[in-house]
Design brief:
By secondary structure, the chain is of the alpha+beta class. It has eight helices and 19 strands. A hairpin with a 2-residue loop joins strand 16 and strand 17 (258-260). The longest helix has 19 residues, at 276-294. The radius of gyration is 20 Å and the shape is globular. The chain starts with a helix and ends in a 27-residue tail after the last strand.
Length: 331
């Protein structure tokens, strides 16, 4: 905590024009609308100031937590008193490169990116038009929908590697994309800054029609009228998480203010003043019930932040996504 307070003071001194939110409710920064206060959330204007903040934090032996739209995350009710968060919301540069590829900074929403591609007669990002995340968050988890994934259209990613305070450009293969996975999840220490997307020429009208079709499917099948963090669990190999949950009789099941969506069993929604404990308890009940019913162990797709909750009789532990900085190793 002492190091964090010193880092906050230094950030204020060296970046006097920076927007720095202190003791800010995290519920205002995530799609679940859940979460207690964060000690500090910095909102840098550009990549340069973001890098400067990361340098200061490194000097104080701290790692930042990067925050995009918060559309795939469960923050704790207790807040995050010992983390320094950096929001990418102002990293919004988006343009065509001379060779026709698209350059986008980490804070650009996937919806805006998909619309920009359509307006420029480029196809391949139609699936992303309804995903509520950002480029940075989408790259980290290799976001996808309706048969498309970002790995299919990413040419390269520019990242700040914290242990070395050095900027690297990684090609698609080096990003090690997999199903809802990337190198940036498997190896800590990377701050995603921007990416280049390589798409195919197409008819703008046809691309727009495809986007409308996919977004209509999303509106019909997903509970977009209630706060959630998207799909609660990853798709297990050979199965569909929503079908397994439905077959276990859990559609509509509720813990406190958290509920398995009655519209789509793959979603956990905030049906009314849900706490993070409500959501976590519900997810563990779903996970254990599905395992007993079908022998399939569901893996959360939502990032669940500390603290670890003390729960009784919840079966196998869930791997949590703690903030760490590690030196990359070859696999």
């Amino acid at each position: 905590m002492e190091n964090l307070e010193k880092a906050i003071a230094q950030v204020k001194a060296e970046l006097p024009g920076l927007t720095l939110l202190e003791n800010e409710p995290l519920s205002a920064h995530c799609s679940f609308r859940i979460g207690g206060p964060a000690r500090a959330i910095a909102v840098p204007q550009d990549v340069s100031s973001l890098s400067k903040i990361c340098c200061i934090l490194k000097d104080h032996k701290l790692a930042p937590f990067l925050l995009g739209n918060g559309s795939n995350i469960l923050f704790p009710d207790e807040g995050l008193a010992d983390l320094f968060l950096i929001s990418t919301e102002k990293l919004q540069r988006l343009f065509l490169l001379p060779d026709g590829a698209i350059y986008a900074e980490a804070g650009v929403s996937l919806a805006r990116l998909a619309l920009f591609a359509q307006q420029n007669g480029l196809r391949g990002l139609e699936f992303a038009s309804g995903i509520p995340g950002t480029v940075g968050g989408g790259l980290r988890m290799n976001a996808g929908a309706y048969g498309g994934e970002l790995k299919d259209v990413v040419e390269s990613v520019v990242t700040l590697y914290l242990p070395e305070q050095a900027v690297y450009e990684l090609n698609n293969e080096q990003c090690a994309f997999g199903y809802r996975m990337s190198r940036f999840q498997k190896v800590g220490g990377f701050v995603l800054l921007s990416a280049v997307f390589r798409l195919e020429p197409g008819d703008a009208g046809e691309i727009a029609a495809k986007m409308r079709e996919l977004n209509e499917k999303r509106r019909e099948k997903q509970p977009l009228d209630l706060p959630s963090a998207g799909s609660a669990f990853k798709r297990p190999e050979g199965y569909f998480a929503a079908a397994l949950i439905d077959q276990a009789g859990l559609k509509g099941y509720r813990v406190g203010g958290a509920q398995v969506s009655e519209k789509h069993a793959g979603f956990v929604v905030n049906a009314g003043n849900a706490s993070s404990h409500d959501v976590y308890d519900l997810m563990m009940h779903v996970r254990n019930t599905v395992y007993r019913n079908a022998g399939v162990e569901l893996e959360p797709e939502i990032i669940i932040l500390p603290p670890d909750y003390k729960l009784e009789d919840h079966g196998p532990a869930v791997a949590r996504n703690h903030v760490t900085v590690n030196v990359p190793t070859e696999e």
